[in-house]
Amino acid sequence: WSLDDYPHFEYVRFPTYILHGLRSVSDVLENWTLDFEYMVRNLDEGVITYTFHPEVVGRGHTMIFLEKLIKYIKDHIKHKEIEFLTLEEVAKIYRKKLGID
Questions:
Q1: pTM here?
Q2: Residue 81: its pLDDT value, please?
């Protein structure tokens, strides 16, 4: 769940436990950009998938968080072969590489 916004930002009380959430966007942004940076530095190719729940990311501070994350990734696109793709597009590329198209 580390690349899913819900556990980081959402506070939920259950009968047996509490999902604390309510994390600082700057802490989560740092973690997510470092995960991305690690992938770019250490892998020839890869996919990083962030999950955004509309009821979480639609808040003002998380929208700014999302804008900063996209800007960070776009800044890296200038220097490397990085692109935004849908998971369907990624699956097609992977299937083609495996010869199961």
A1: 0.81
A2: 79
